[in-house]
Write a structure and sequence with these properties.
Layout lengths: L8 H7 L5 E4 L4 E12 L5 H12 L4 E3 L10 E13 L3 E4 L5 E3 L3 H7 L12 E3 L2 E4 L5 E2 L14 E4 L10 E4 L5 E4 L2 E2 L11 E2 L2 E2 L7 E8 L6 H6 L1 H11 L10 H6 L5 H13 L4 H10 L5 H17 L7 H17 L2 E3 H10 L5 H4 L2 H7 L2 E20 L13 E3 L12 E17 L1 H10 L12 H11 L16 H25 L6 E6 L4 E6 L9 H8 L1 H12 L7 H4 L24 H5 L1 E2 L4 E2 L5 H11 L1
Parallel strand pairs: 3-19, 4-20
Antiparallel strand pairs: 1-2, 2-4, 5-6, 5-7, 8-9, 8-15, 10-11, 11-12, 13-14, 16-18, 17-18, 18-20, 20-22, 21-22, 23-24
Helix pairs in contact: 5-9, 5-10, 16-18
Length: 628
Amino acid sequence: MNKMMRRGKNQVLFKFLPGKPIDYNQGNAIALVERWFSHKVDDVNKTRIIKEVYNAIRSFKSKRGYPRIASPDSFELLSPVFVEAELFPLTFICDSCSRAYSFGSVQQLNRVLRKHKCISCGGKLTQMDLVYTHECGHLWAPKIAPCKEHGFEKIILNKHGSNSPKDWRWECGICKRETSSLNSWCPACKGTSNSQICYPKPFRQTSVFTPHSLTLVNLQNLNEDRIYEDDIFKKLILAKYMDLFKKHNSTFQECLDVSPKDDNKLDQLIKELKAKNMSEEMINQVLESMNKVNPNKKGVRDAIIKEVETLISPPEGDMSGVALKAYEFMETLDSSASVHIKRIVESSERKNHPKIEQIRKFPKKLEEIGIKNAYVLNDLSIVKLVYGYTRGAPDNKSNEDKRTLNRFATDKSTDQGKTPIYLNKANTEAILLEFDRWKILTWLKENGVIDEVPSKDDEAALKAWFLNNVQTDRISPFREIDPQLKKTKMVYKLLHSISHALLTTCSVECGMDKNSLAELIFPSIPAIIIYCSNVQEFQIGGMFTLFENNIIPWVEKTLTKVGSCIYDPVCMDHQSACHACLHLSEISCVHFNYDLGRDILIGKKNSNEEIIGFWSKKFLRKVNVENG
């Protein structure tokens, strides 16, 4: 196989990964991607990526090939240059006489079938499109079973008039004896407790190859050493996020500039200077000349840090995770050429926009559905990465604990012994929606999830609640959030359901196909991002046009659409989400359509419980009255 096919990096990243059977040569053949040739990627947050990958894979009971310790030195971040594939499976059936052929290599195939025609009748040979897979990750091809008397002389595939491969049999074309069914035992698990009978399946079936991926905001200015190792830096990041510097008449940069790496050494130096009877003024001059901390500024910094320690108490005790989430949110706004909805209104007023009366209502309309701040991001930098794959239906919960997450084989460009992670960077346009924290907490209280809600005027306490209570490290993209994590589950399900509801109706208003849009969820902020995931279809200004003209119809269509489903009452009585209302494609959804429900949005009442919807009239009346 030496025919070249050109594909975009995003398409290669998900459809042409190592270990995946693919359509080749416009569907005229089937091939197996054997290996990649890539170049190394250095200008991304490697430590952060590795930590996010390990957080994602921790939910898999069975993993194969990953280093035990999440060390950046054990991984290589790569971007594809070209892909090498080989013909697979090497089993062929004659269209005329049904004679079957199977080979161990392409070389053997070319040697035996030089004209690529049936030896018996000269008929056209069709490549078999069935393969075997096992949850362990092994993939293999159908092999014909020989006749005890006539060997491989003339084995045919007898389908017995059935479309199901389970009914098909290998049969000797000479003596007419059946030689075997098409069932097969996993050769990789032979003789182990994991061994089981496997049935052939079409190579295009989702269960044959499921890539496991993440999409992250590319934090271009992230100092990884400080965010993971410097405790003072972490706490100053959180102080900035909670806006604690103003009341101390200080700034983040001031405290950052004077933050020493070793306070003990500084204290020792001050002590030595005082022992020499040096005045406070002289000491300050000496310290500033040495670029050390002014004791007065150090006191301010210490007071701010103490306040952070009072407000923030993450479940695992480590500030790195919550500090990173806060930093990610702030950096996304700072580095993505963000424009607030209020600036859109102001700009329209200056231009005397013909729809200015309607545009003035945009912020209020968003507030009605719980959105406090809205931004259009004109230059969002994202990283899409793939770190492994499974075989077996991704939505088959009965087998999810049996599936093995497999790493990709060592790339031709990878240093020996390192595990490859494939990624692609892209810049795109997006909408970021930051939610009213007080409204969400009030909604949680109304549903009996929490007992107390901080004052709506205490923004630091409201932000701290989400950082303290939403356990982002317990959220896996590939399975439902544990119901025991009630606060985390309810917050995430609310944001995820709103994201799907808005994304479904967004496509019409911004002029993009629904499958070209995707989501990012920031549950500990809380916020969501809706962005154009298909960079090749990226239309500059699509999101801006939505912001400038279509906020009201977007919100109103969303509220109308979530109110019913064509499969109600079955849909509402069951999961309250299905393909007809809230489900999105796997490319668009960040959580495989888990933790979704219209009941969260519009409410639901049955004999056992009542769920008060976040967008229900009952709740909206309550919070609007309390907001006064």
